[in-house]
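Appendix B. One record, verbatim.
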Amino acid sequence: MTGSRRQDKLEDDFDFKDWGSDKHQSPLLEVSIDPEFREQHADRLLACVPTVIEVNDFDDDAVHGFEKSVGIALQANQRIIPIIIDSWGGDCYSLLRMLDLIAAVQQRGYTVATIASGKAMSCGAIRLAAGSQGFRYATPDATILIHEVSSMTYGKSSEVVVEASQVQALTTRLYAILDAGCQQKSGYWEARVHANKHADLYISSAQALEAGLVNGIGLPRYRLHAHLDFQWLGP
């Protein structure tokens, strides 16, 4: 190439900052834009803003929205996909569908960052544990809840027995996902809930860090920096 050439340059990185230590934009996007770039390339800039997925519910509608958001991130070849979890929990089968999708994404070489903000309870705790190793976070005041799967089955005794068996199998499966995500020995979380007399097990961010459920305490941010870079290229 010859003559004067303008090169539009976009840089993004995943920058961990402690909660409140610096300015941040909700939920975790930090955007620094050269004024000239903003004026001339507003449309392109919007297309480059990373997708941040928020998970509040675990039901069919939430799964469909989750799949759509993941698809947008993949289409943009976004190598790190952040998922903010602020959830009371929900349907375990909807959770498993999300986990299947995320496992497929991770197998393709993408990193999934999970952040517990506010609360990650029940299904939310499992979703948190399924983030990529080294990319799981909880804000300092987040509350995490782990417990056994519950069911409100009614009907004939034979149906109740079958449902109870399925609930136990599902509980075992979800504990295994938690153990693997935290790099704990099999049975670790089941033993902790058992020691808690099978009651709801509430843990703080610090306790989650100690157990390996998260890798850091604080709010990670996606930093997008856009500016113009002028270069003179000789013949």
